Amino acid sequence: IPRPPNSFMLFRSHLLKHIIPKDMGKKQQKASRTAGKFWNDPRLPYQVKKAWEERAKVVRDWHKAKYPDYKFSPR
Q: Residues in domain HMG box (predicted)?
């Protein structure tokens, strides 16, 4: 069972699908760095991060309903 994505992972996924150029898609490390720069940019409005945090909460709640006995346990 995969872990539910956090707000940054949802944001990163959105950037990869809609904003970051397709030629960068093969280079996941580079794409992650670019997404991290966007996410940590002080000019990014608070409301944007808040919206992604709310989406992550919805996904987390859905995950909890679908897998009620799930407990993260790193290897």
A: 1-71
